[in-house]
Amino acid sequence: MKVDQLSIFLENRAGRLAEVTRLLSEAKVNIRALSLADTSDFGILRLIVSDFDKAREVLKQNGFTVGRTSVVAVEVDDTPGGLHRILEMLRDSKVNVEYMYAFVQQSGSNAIIIFRFDRTDQAIEILHQNKIPIVPGEKLYNL
Amino acid sequence: MILDVDLETLPREDLEALQLRRLKALVARVYENVPFYRKSFDEKGLKPEDIQTLADVKLLPFTTKQDLRDHYPFGMFAVSRENIVRIHSSSGTTGKATVVGYTRRDIRNWGRLMGRCLAAAGLTSQDLLHNAYGYGLFTGGLGAHYGAEELGATVIPVSGGGTRRQAMLLRDFGATAICCTPSYCLHLAEVAQEMGIDFKSLPLRVGVFGAEPWSDSMRKEMESKLGIMALDIYGLSEIMGPGVAIECAKAQNGLHIMEDHFLVEIIDPQTGENLPAGEIGELVITTLTKEAIPLLRYRTRDLTSLNPAPCRCGRTFARMKRVQGRSDDMLIIRGVNVFPQQIESIILETEGLSPHYQLIVTRENNLDNLEVQVEVDESLFSDAIKNLQRLESKVQKNIKEFLGVTARVKLVEPRSIQRSEGKAKRIVDMRNQQA
């Protein structure tokens, strides 16, 4: 049910981001979704890629600090209020959203949002109970 | 004006006779009362009676900052605690701070010596002194304070911080003299300028600056920019505090050392051999009159040279050149002594940080800035930005709390800090390039 997201520590220096994309392109890894969070000193690049292990290996070999984080890809009704309904059900059960970003591809006619929860298993449980579709990792990487 | 004319103009041979009498009494006293010295004398087979001439000072063991740290807090004291009326300390984590004590007589002597220094700088009882050295455990504030009171000058105990208010006080109280670090004075002048207060129009006449190294060209810049005479004062808390040596207003060419209280030598920092007058080496000081924590041949780590030639101010006390540098790693950040090892221990004690760090020191708007760069490593890397930021601010907070300096803490990528074969290059001090 969960999705492996690759997190990469980036100093706020020219060329660091381009270095990441160069390495991934040479390794023929496809980036499916990304989000870049920043502070004044550094950023964390979060990626959903077509081949997690390959991406991690090539980045580590080239001196990058990488981590694996479990996130959830949730199908959201692509109409006004779609996202709001989901956030409401999570709020009511006190699950916290740490961050989120959108996935480029749609699933059928639904949008896909990547969520990082503070309590991932509980969040998945709640979404199941409410019959909200979740896209598992294996399917997502090559959608 | 010379405060203690008879002493400050003593002919050299009388001065040396006085120093020898005091040295002999000192050696006997520490042998009797300080276990550390007794032990090192016994180990060398040395007896107090062996010190017969001033040249025999070379037979005495050196004392280092580490010796003081090893006997933290009161292990080097030569008197019982009831006789100690004051404690001062330099910054540092527990076990690393240097603690010193003073008897009533020590405090009186200190005040007198500092008074001499201010008098040499041209101050009199008519002056109004703005004292911006920090009051508290640091020796700067109280040291300058007692010296000014000794002279009968009017002291304003401003201490550090609150720069805008300080500028206002300079304008409103009309101080004629100021004490602080040279970089702070420049900063104060800038802030004052922004407030519409022109230093040149103030009654401020002279500044007695210390606690950090500053060049002759910095002095010339300050004098022309601020319209005051800028003089260098030297001291260190292990020896006493400010007041060990002062640049006289008359000649502005070297700092007169209070030689009736301090016996000085210059040594080669690598070999420990004594160097002749004029050669640059490490300043070593023996405290001839201190009661609470007398020190033999204390290695200051400050690099300078001695000039025994008579000065046109009339003083016969030898002069030392402005401190040229350090023979160790110590940094001075806005007047505060910082050892990279202290930052290192804070980093190592903070869970999740790699031991690879570097200190970058710059000067912006006349103020020193310290940036501590620490490499991220896998175990520390958290996907949540707030965790990384928390780590940065934890280190920053600990540095502030234990060392008294505000440092910027920056996480950097692994292997971005240069590795080296031997000793790691922990410090990048860009201030040298900025003259």
Explain the overall architecture:
- The complex is a heterodimer of chains A (143) and B (435).
- Chain A is of the alpha+beta class.
- The longest helix of chain A is centred in the first third of the chain and has 11 residues.
- Chain A has 5 helices and 7 strands.
- In chain A, strands 1, 2, 3, 4, 5, 6 and 7 form a 7-stranded antiparallel β-sheet that branches.
- Chain B has a 9-stranded mixed β-sheet with strand order 4-3-5-6-7-8-9-14-13, sandwiched between helices.
- At the A-B interface, strand 1, strand 3 and strand 4 of A face helix 11 and strand 20 of B.
Nearest-angstrom radius of gyration of chain A? Answer: 16 Å
CATH fold label of the largest domain in chain A: VC0802-like
**Main pleated sheet of chain A:** 7 strands, antiparallel
Q: What distance lies between the first and last C-alpha atoms of chain A, to the nearest angstrom? A: 15 Å
- Known CATH architecture of the largest domain in chain B: 3-Layer(aba) Sandwich
Fold-level CATH name of the largest domain in chain B: Rossmann fold
In helices, the fraction of residues of chain B equals 25-40%
Secondary-structure class of chain B: alpha/beta
Please give the CATH architecture of the largest domain in chain A: 2-Layer Sandwich
Number of helices of chain B: 11
Global mean pLDDT of chain B: 91
3D shape of chain B: globular
> Which two protein chains have the largest interface (Cβ within 8 Å of the partner's Cβ), and how many residues from each?
A-B, 20 and 18 residues
Biggest sheet of chain B: strands, sense, closure? Answer: 9 strands, mixed
Provide the helix percentage of chain A: 25-40%
CATH superfamily of the largest domain in chain A: VC0802-like
- What is the arithmetic mean of pLDDT of chain A? 91
Low-pLDDT residue spans of chain A: none
Quick one: CATH class of the largest domain in chain B? Alpha Beta
pLDDT < 50 runs, ≥5 residues of chain B: none
What is the total number of structural domains of chain B? 2
